[in-house]
Amino acid sequence: MSTDQELRALRLSAWGQLFFGVLGLAFALYTESEAILLDGYFSLIAFAMSLLTMKVARLVRQPGDETFHFGYFGFEPMLNLLKGIVILGVCGFSLASAIQSLLHGGRALAVGPALLYGVVAAVGCLVMAGVMSALAKRSRSPLVAVEVQTWRVDAVVSLGVVAAFLAAFLLQGSRWSGVVDYVDPGLVTLMILAVIPVPIRIVLDSLGELLSIAPEKPVQLEVQQRFDELVADYPFEKNMLRMAKVGRVSYLLAHILVRPDFHLQGVGDLDLIRKRIESGIRELHPSWEVDTLFVADESLI
Question: Does the global pTM surpass 0.90?
Answer without folding.
Answer: no
